[in-house]
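Practice problem 4.
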């Protein structure tokens, strides 16, 4: 059996209705895991779950506001009820609002802090409570947090996003240390995705042009490609495969680390 075989594993992917999260959910299911999509977007989330189910995999949906503790409690319970357990959590839900520092809006700052940091913190908390011995699932597992190449480089126009994703990196390491020391049986890692032309990535390119940081969205994307040794933008599958690896037994002795999936941009 391949060490990347996830048969029998139970996964919850936040922000899984579309973009990177949907790709990660599809990849986990293709590797054999049962998957639940957690998202605010009910119709899109259910559609993604239905598309996964149509392949013969087991998939479901739970409504989840990652910034709300009670919503997390319901999502964890709903996931376990639907697929019979939980041993993989992908904290993917994220928000990026571009701005020059001189134009920062405190409301936007709070939104990104709430989704990117608070949401990830609550996800780790409730994954630990469910996965540790005596928890509702109680078999240990893996938490994969989605940071960003923006946590490893200075990139203009996304100062708050970069700060929150740097926070996700540090949080990952502390969580891994606690889980190990306390015998939870849970590995905690993160990935640093490079720029992917999802809706969020395309909006970033448009914003860079609007802020005067590039002459056009196409030029903004070209700047990223030029700074990437592998010479291309990332693809959803690049990030999804990295998540499958970190969730699998292939990463059984890996915890508290960040995996750059950025074509070398952040080296």
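Answer key:
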């Amino acid at each position: 059996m391949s060490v990347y075989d996830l048969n029998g594993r139970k996964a919850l992917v936040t922000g899984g209705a579309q973009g990177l999260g949907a790709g990660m959910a599809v990849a986990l299911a293709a590797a054999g895991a049962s998957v639940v999509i957690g998202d605010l977007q009910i119709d899109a989330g259910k559609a993604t779950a239905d598309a996964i189910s149509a392949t013969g995999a087991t998939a479901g949906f739970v409504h989840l506001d990652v910034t709300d503790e009670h919503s997390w409690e319901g999502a964890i319970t709903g996931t376990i009820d639907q697929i019979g357990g939980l041993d993989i959590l992908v904290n993917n839900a994220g928000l990026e609002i571009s701005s020059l520092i001189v134009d920062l809006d405190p409301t936007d700052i709070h939104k990104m802090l709430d989704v990117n940091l608070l949401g990830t913190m609550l996800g780790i908390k409730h994954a630990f409570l469910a996965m540790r011995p005596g928890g509702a699932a109680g078999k240990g597992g893996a938490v994969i947090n989605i940071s960003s190449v923006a946590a490893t480089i200075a990139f203009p126009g996304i100062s708050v996003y970069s700060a929150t994703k740097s926070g996700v990196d540090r949080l990952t390491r502390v969580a891994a240390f606690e889980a190990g020391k306390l015998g939870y049986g849970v590995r905690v890692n993160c990935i640093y995705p490079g720029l992917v032309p999802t809706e969020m990535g395309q909006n970033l390119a448009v914003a860079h042009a609007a802020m005067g940081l590039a002459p056009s969205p196409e030029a903004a994307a070209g700047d990223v490609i030029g700074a990437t040794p592998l010479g291309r933008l990332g693809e959803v599958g690049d990030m999804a495969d990295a998540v499958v690896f970190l969730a699998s037994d292939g990463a059984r002795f890996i915890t508290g680390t960040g995996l750059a999936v950025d074509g070398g941009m952040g080296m």
